[in-house]
Amino acid sequence: xxxxxxxxxxxxxxxxxxxxxxxxxxxxxxxxxxxxxxxxxxxxxxxxxxxxxxxxxxxxxxxxxxxxxxxxxxxxxxxxxxxxxxxxxxxxxxxxxxxxxxxxxxxxxxxxxxxxxxxxxxxxxxxxxxxxxxxxxxxxxxxxxxxxxxxxxxxxxxxxxxxxxxxxxxxxxxxxxxxxxxxxxxxxxxxxxxxxxxxxxxxxxxxxxxxxxxxxx
Length: 217
Hints:
The chain is 73% helix and 0% strand.
């Protein structure tokens, strides 16, 4: 049975695949990629390695599935909460909403734990860095570019490379917060402090890229 068949054969198969990923997530985050084995995951599931391999042909494939599920679904919600720029009446508020939602997502404990895992293991296992980038940041770059394509078309920002604009906004939103949380030297931000930080970042961004009348003083 292939992984694809195992994952789509029946609701029971879907539930089993879900259970495998849940157990793998806990093991990877607690012990790291190198220290986690398929035998250990099978034992925690209470089944055989053969059954596990029916769903995932290797530890790398299982890790990739865990990575995709952790990043892609929640990340899609980030952009789903903010209307396209073409529907915005106030680009500053739209950018603040987008930045705040993104920062809240990235500061979640499970996302911080995932980033720490990737940084710790990518030196020995470069494929982990690739999987993380393709499952999360690369997809985010595309969504940011789409947002700014709409913002340019609507005249809210000056014409420029929309992908670059997305990168600059993200960098500003994460600045002085994300890395310090990653290192464990910054207490969690409350909602008001987080939004105030994002608002300052958006104002800097609009001074650089905002169309006439959109840039803040």
